[in-house]
Amino acid sequence: MRWLLVFVVAFVLFNGLAGWLRKVGLGRLPGDFAFRFRGREIFVPLASSVLLSLIAAGVSTLL
Questions:
Q1: Who's near 21: CB < 8 A, 6+ residues apart?
Q2: From CA 56, how far away is CA 58, in angstroms rounded?
Q3: Which of 4, 14, 46, 52 is most buried by a 10 A CB count?
Q4: For residue 2, which phi and psi values (nearest 5 degrees)?
């Protein structure tokens, strides 16, 4: 259940910051999908979410 919550929060953050994150390089990883539906772009950051989750887990184990 916790991973689902983390994924939903990451999904919302990525959609809000999609333009800036693409400039940084996140969002262009294999496994990140962008769909256009009725004039709106929906961004599904699967690979970027996993990468950021791994980084967060690594930082939390160090602290």
A1: 14, 27, 48
A2: 5
A3: 14
A4: -65, -40
Task: Give the end-to-end CA distance of the chain in Å, rounded to a whole number.
Answer: 24
With helix as H, strand as E and coil as C, how does the chain read? CHHHHHHHHHHHHHHHCHHHHHHHECECCCCEEEEEECCEEEEEEHHHHHHHHHHHHHHHHHC
This prediction has a pTM of: 0.57
**10, 29, 38 from 52: Cα distances, Å:** 9, 12, 29
Q: Residue 55: which domain range?
A: 2-62
Tokens of 49: 């979410």
The type of residue at 33 is F
pLDDT at 21: 72
**Confidence category of residue 31, pLDDT binned at 50, 70, 90:** confident
